[in-house]
Specification:
Belongs to the protein-tyrosine phosphatase family. Non-receptor class dual specificity subfamily. By secondary structure, the protein is mostly helical. It is built from five helices and three strands. The protein has helices at about 5-15, 55-70, 80-95, 100-110, 120-135; strands spanning about 20-25, 40, 70-75. α2 crosses α3 (about 80-95), α3 crosses α4 (about 100-110) and α3 (about 80-95) runs parallel beside α5.
């Protein structure tokens, strides 16, 4: 998703059951305060860059915890396509056992224009290779 820019956006996410929000952009941060019902994690990734493998692993760890607690998670960057698309594809690889090609395709079908650069595509494949190496 794109960055939630107002308190009303955050209230909407809460109303839809979003429990944890992961921000991939430091340049646009949502207006979360200490009273917010949403937990918040920043994993900073430069715009149009790919997340590092450690960033993806951290994101997947957060996803795993939310899934175990049966709580919904949201992830955003500035526009919700490049960096967010990479994390979404890696989620599909980990939790739905998709191939990297299929995960990228599924993300792009849901949100056209996602995973914007070759480096972002490579990050998805690197995560897949990492998972294979840990089996």
């Amino acid at each position: 998703m794109a960055c939630p820019r107002s308190a009303a956006n955050l209230e909407y996410l809460c109303s839809k059951g979003i429990y944890h929000l992961v921000s991939l952009s430091e340049e646009t941060l949502p207006p979360i305060n200490k009273q917010s019902a949403i937990e918040w994690t920043i994993i900073p990734v430069e715009e149009f860059e790919a997340p590092l493998l450690d960033d993806v692993i951290k994101f997947i760890d957060i996803c795993s915890k939310c899934l175990l607690q049966n709580k919904a998670l949201g992830v955003h960057c500035r526009q919700g396509r490049g960096r967010t698309g990479v994390m979404g594809a890696c989620f599909l690889i980990k939790f739905q056992n998709l191939s990297p090609d299929r995960a990228i395709l599924d993300i792009r079908l849901q949100r056209p224009g996602s995973i914007e650069t070759y480096q972002q595509e490579r990050a998805v494949f690197k995560y897949y290779d990492y998972l294979l190496s840990t089996k």
